Amino acid sequence: MNTLLPIAHQFAKTVTGISPLGNGLINDTFLVVTGSSRFVLQRINGKIFPAPGHIIDNLITLNRHLEQKPGTEVKLKLPELLKTATNQDFYQDGQGDYWRALDFIENTESLETVTDISRAGQAGFALGHFHRLVSDLDPLRLHDTLPGFHIAPGYLSRYHRVLTQSSVQPERESRYCAEFIAKFQHLADDLETAKRQGLLKLRVIHGDPKLNNFLFDIVSKKIVSIIDLDTVKPGLVHYDIGDCLRSCCHIPESNEFDLDICAALLTGYFSEAGAFFSGHDYDYLYAAIQLIPFELGLRFYTDYLEGNRYFKVTGPEQNLQRAAGQFQLCESIMTQESAIKALIDRLKSQWIA
Ligand code: GN1
Ligand code: MG
Predict the structure, then answer these.
(1) Which of 18, 21, 72, 152 is the most buried (most CB within 10 A)?
(2) Quick check: 145 and 57 in contact, CB under 8 A?
């Protein structure tokens, strides 16, 4: 609190409380209470985001785009940047760290697991709505805030580099991860090859649409906001759909993939995105659903081998366990491949003549 107070004061005169918020693995996030309201204060992790100013530029571009959409009902309220006392969009402290403040969207909650199926439909709808709202924003107007993010072949090469330098003794769980990667590493190229071939096109993506980045209104239970916009940048919507599904369909007790949640989520998604999803987009949907948990497992495992430099951990083995969880989820997806593909075909036939 003591070290944070002068930073919070850059954004508000009276500060009555500061407490940690959420459980992000990259940035540091706090809820600041003032005499009259609350806001979110965040230190952007400058070791990971090479140009924090670009995140702020993108947020401004995005908010402006949503403000200028005549005839379109915008059902998501994105957090707005608060200015510092000197009218800046961020504050840079003595260490060179970037701090920004965002308005806190009141009367909302975020969830760690899907508590009932209608929540999954909501998440799909909200992601589809977000993609639809930005479908006419040229992705090249946005900065690439995190080069290499979701580029699976890049994560794989890094893994191979780290592996040759690692002194970690392969214990049981670690061997499972290494063997899983060796067996399925061919998956890493699926989406990037399709992108290079022009089959999948670059669009504006959220980058991190996991369940706890959606805010549900506590009364209506409808999603009213999508937060954590640091990785809004040019990319494939497939990364987003895969990421949303891997987080919503993950049954934590067993690391299995819940197909009913997947069906509800995709149905919600296509009610908004069906209009712009192309035949090729459908063709690569299963590949994305399978790839994103593989990719996240690969990222966690590589970080474990490197000594946990990227994702925050509470213990030295946490990234190893996270990795194993993602690989088990991926296995569960693979065992349900035909059912997932049948679901995709069913949805495709409703939208593509
Ligand atoms: C990171 O910090 P957080 O939790 O919002 C990561 C995501 C991962 C997620 C896994 C920029 O997001 O890609 O899916 O952890 N964000 C970045 O929990 O790497
Ligand atoms: Mg995030």
Answers:
(1) 152
(2) no
Q: pLDDT tens across 235-262, in order?
A: 999 999 999 999 999 999 999 999 999 9
Q: Give CA angle at 41 (40, 43), nearest 5°.
A: 140
Q: What share of the chain is helix, strand, coil (3-state, %, to 5)?
A: 50, 15, 35
Claim to verify: residue 16 and residue 130 sit in the same structural domain: no
Provide residues with CB under 6 Å of ligand 1. 24-26, 146, 208, 210, 228, 231, 296
Candidate of 44, 311, 330 to mutate for ligand 1, largest count of ligand atoms within 8 Å of Cβ: 311
The model's pTM:
0.96
CB atoms within 10 A of CB 344: 18
216 and 187 fall within a common domain: yes
- Residue 147, CA distances (Å) to 143, 207, 232, 242 in order: 9, 12, 12, 19
Q: Are 170 and 99 in the same domain?
A: no
